[in-house]
Specification:
alpha/beta, about 230 residues, 7 helices, 6-stranded mixed beta sheet, single chain
Length: about 230
């Protein structure tokens, strides 16, 4: 256990330690990676989950009981996604926190400017959340696309001043499925309806067989990321 808990103001002092740990924990279990981070930032850690699936939430809540699990409710989430979060909350009694956009009501911005829509409904609420924390656990995986292919299991997000933790970075789709099966986790019904990647309902479509799994996100646009991890 570290002598002193890392804070947002002292994170940069530990950059070398984080870089070394990222290499050493490359093949560690996701749970061990989450515990390593929680040991260093203490209770100032949060987990953001899209609830496309519940693997990350289950990993984190099992590794660190009581850890804060956050779902950013953009006001445009699928009903199935909200159902899944509630199912896991009831099954595991997880510490689930729902975060909403700031001073925003449902509108039609998604029809004219998806970048602005993602910014006000995802990025700004996330930034406000992370302003309260020194550690951030995400579900980013390398297999998710070229922009995520080099994702480390640990890094320091210097802009947001948080220790960023990606415990599932090395997980394949098959390993995600196996984890769900092994722990008998509830499954997002949309997964079996052609939605391998799930975001907000206005900007998520099912994909055809053989298409990239993120082809249904912002289909017909050059956009591939919502901005949370860029």
């Amino acid at each position: 256990m570290p002598v002193a808990i890392w804070t947002k103001d002292t994170l940069v002092e530990h950059a070398d330690e984080v870089a070394i740990a990222a290499r050493e924990l490359e093949t560690a279990t996701p749970g061990d990676i989450v515990r390593w981070a929680a040991d260093r930032v203490g209770s100032s850690i949060t987990v953001t989950c899209s609830f496309e699936d519940v693997v990350l939430a289950h990993v984190a809540a099992t590794a660190v009981p009581g850890i804060e699990i956050v779902m950013i409710d953009t006001q445009y989430l699928f009903a199935e996604t909200k159902w899944l979060a509630d199912e896991l909350r009831k099954a595991m009694d997880i510490n689930l926190r729902i975060v909403h956009p700031l001073h925003v009501t449902p509108d039609n911005l998604w029809q004219t400017d998806t970048e602005a829509c993602c910014n006000v409904r995802k990025v700004l609420p996330l930034n406000a959340l992370l302003a309260e924390h020194a550690g951030w656990v995400t579900g980013v995986r390398r297999i998710d696309g070229p922009t995520r292919a080099n994702t480390p299991v640990l890094s320091i997000d210097e802009t947001r001043k948080v220790l960023k933790v990606n415990p599932l970075a090395l997980y394949s789709d098959e390993e995600m499925e196996s984890y769900e099966y092994l722990y008998e986790l509830p499954r997002n019904p949309l997964k079996d309806r052609g939605y391998p990647s799930i975001g907000c309902w206005p900007c998520t479509k099912p994909v055809a067989e053989g298409e990239d799994k993120r082809a249904g996100r912002w289909a017909g646009q050059a956009k591939t990321e919502c901005g949370l991890h860029v």
